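Structural prep section.
Before we set up the soaks we want a predicted structure of the protein with adenosine-5'-triphosphate in place, mainly to decide which crystallisation condition to try first. Input record follows.
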Amino acid sequence: MIHFKQVSKRFPDGYQALNNIDLNIDAGEMVFLTGHSGAGKSTLLKLIAAIDRPTSGVIAINGHNIVQLRPAALPFLRRKIGFVFQDYKLLFDRNVYENVLLPLQISGFDNKITAGRVRAALDKVGLLKKEKAMPITLSGGERQRLCIARAVVHRPLILIADEPTGNLDMAYAREIMTIFHSFHQVGVTVLIATHDASLLEENRYRVLSLQHGKFAA
Ligand SMILES: Nc1ncnc2c1ncn2[C@@H]1O[C@H](COP(=O)(O)OP(=O)(O)OP(=O)(O)O)[C@@H](O)[C@H]1O
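Run finished without errors. Recording the tokens verbatim:
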């Protein structure tokens, strides 16, 4: 489902964030990506969603090489991928419902089906009763659940999360992990970047460890 061959990323300032990465994640797998701060985790996740481009190498998502994807083709890739960002990226002038609706509106979904989709996504993360709330009134755990609802509302094949439990205490972090498990159980490919060691100990999934832009042996 996610395939990297000899992928490198060098930023314009010359910094080499990823160095000849090979990676294979099968459809339906749930995988953790770990490593020190600055190891290249966020960079790797952004390459999968073509938010950023590699300097060299091949990245295939669901069998399609995305490295030279034309801008017009990006929305088709992005519909396959749900991305939970490290810094939430919520719209604070829109309520919970509207935040989740936005990706569907951008994709041009028919109004007849959007309400059902939005409510189904909010239900999965336990936020149905808060659909009219403004994000500022939500707790950190609720904001993170809102981000997950927004990421899955278009029913992606792949769910990517960058430090989804970073600012949460253990109880909230477990709650968030339970939500990711539930998507994994229905066949979604899940990739989670974290340096929260307690999460890694509690979950028996494959762990990929990045060190200075390379996978640790
Ligand atoms: N646009 C950019 N230009 C230059 N360097 C960058 C850019 N984005 C990231 N970097 C650098 O690339 C390295 C990897 O960054 P990245 O955000 O991928 O690390 P990370 O493993 O996700 O770290 P953290 O756990 O702290 O989020 C860092 O040294 C970072 O400063």
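Observations: The first strand starts at residue 2 and ends at 10.
Flagged for discussion at group meeting.
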